[in-house]
Amino acid sequence: KDLMVVSGIGSTAFAKLIQQVGVPRAVDMAVRLGLRSYAVPGTARAYDPESNESLADFIKRQNIGSFTLGPFQLNALELANVAATLASGGTWCPPSPIDKIFDRTGKEVSYTIEPCDQAVPEGLANTFANALSKDDKGAGTAAGAAGSVGWDLPMSGKTGTSRDGWFVGYTPNLVCAVWVGFDDSQQLGLTGAEAALPAWIDFMKEALAIRPSLGGISFPKPRGITSVKIDPETGQLAGPYCPTAQTVSVASRFAPIVECLKHQPELEFMDEAHDVTLESSVETSILSTDLHAAG
């Protein structure tokens, strides 16, 4: 199913991002994080029947800049696996429903599975998890639904909207992706926050009630990252007169050090001060005239 971000601001940011890093690097990162089916030969046939290319190679060859906006089909399992990679400190593992296999005598049977690999550095994955952990707060697209049910656990997530609605999110120990839509690609008419997020919250609350350890306390804070309270309008440190403030995690070297100047109170000048200045000037002028006359 198609995946697109619901926020116009988010769409603009992703469009600018792919312009800066280039389509090939963006596609390769998506594959590394978990969209591994995109690298399978022949997966581009849905878009070019004559092609034996992988979807990843097709997108790169065509230099499709809208890739970050989600114009290509995606399944919920792979999307959940991307989130699992980020939640696991950047370690990708093949999704599998099998934990262990035993024969009829109770002896464990070995089986072969694709090994896990470090898809991205741990610090990068943790930074991304911290960045996404704000979607259920403030102006985040998940804030309304999360607040309405009293969600107060650590989570990272993102809504998505195209013809259908998506939400993928995770606590430090549990990942879930939800898709709501029609198989024939009819317009759903609902955003990801309206359609998919409530189902995600219902499932997660039930799962965490059964196994609270899956919730976790907080996401690992990467080294070199600091939390600062900023004015979201200016990006500067929030001052006592800022109408709103937001706590964000940023690289220490990029943390703002100047307090917000836009919301400082205006200085007021008292009329009495002007009167005193004027009277002093008049007195000085009179004194100077008297001295000249005396001379």
Quote the average pLDDT.
80
Sequence stretches where pLDDT stays below 50 over 5 or more residues: 1-9, 273-294
Strand order of the largest sheet: 5-6-7
Largest sheet: 3 strands, antiparallel
Distance between the termini: 98 Å
SSE succession: HHHHEEEEHHEEEHHEEH
Total strands? 9
| Helical stretch tally | 9
> Could you estimate the helical fraction of the residues in percent?
25-40%
Structure classification? alpha+beta
Portion of residues in beta strands equals 5-15%
Q: Could you walk me through the main structural features you see in this protein, from its secondary elements to its overall organization?
A:
By secondary structure, the chain is α+β, with helices and mostly antiparallel strands. The chain is about 35% helix and about 15% strand. It has nine helices and nine strands. The strands form four sheets. The chain has a three-stranded antiparallel sheet, with helices on both faces. A hairpin with a 5-residue loop joins strand 2 and strand 3. Helix 2 (about 25-35) packs antiparallel against helix 3. The radius of gyration is 29 Å and the shape is globular.
